[in-house]
Amino acid sequence: MSPRPPDRDxxxxxxxxxxxxxxxxxxxxxxxxxxxxxxxxxxxxxxxxTEDAQALLQSARAALASYGDHLRSLKRLFLEEFALARDxxxxxxxxxxxxxxxxxxAYALLTVLVVLGLRWAGLPWMLAVxxxxxxxxxxxxxxxxRARALFRYADFESTRRQLEHGLxxxxxxxxxE
Length: 177
Known about the structure:
With 177 residues, the chain is mainly alpha-helical. It folds into 2 domains: 49-122; 125-170 and 173-177. Helix content is 64%, strand content 0%. The longest helix is centred in the middle third of the chain and has 72 residues, at 49-120. The model has no long low-confidence stretch (mean pLDDT 80).
């Protein structure tokens, strides 16, 4: 009769050194450890190719929908800011017109006061009216000259010159290089 094998559940039992334990578990980080079985209800679990392709397509559609919503929000924001800017420009033009009327009124009253002061100083009416008129004409002429000088910058001269040359680099610019 063969000796009875030792009980593996006994607290003092140790396997013999040359035996291999078949049911031993490897640590989970071991390269030889088998991949765990995915839970069927777990998200991200690998499925069939068709299911994965459908999930990818749904994800792409959700991303495109998100971009579309974002662009629609930006469009709404731009349109509202444009409307706000339009209203602000209209209000600014109204106040600019109001200030021009007030400046013109103040200028007219100042001219009347100058004429009355010159008349009180003993100048004849014609000369008293001519002095503020001459000042106004000189000031208007200086304003016209300055405005014409500034309008020269608003004619896109460089752009027109470049278009006449066919969008090529001018020869004088090539010679500098």
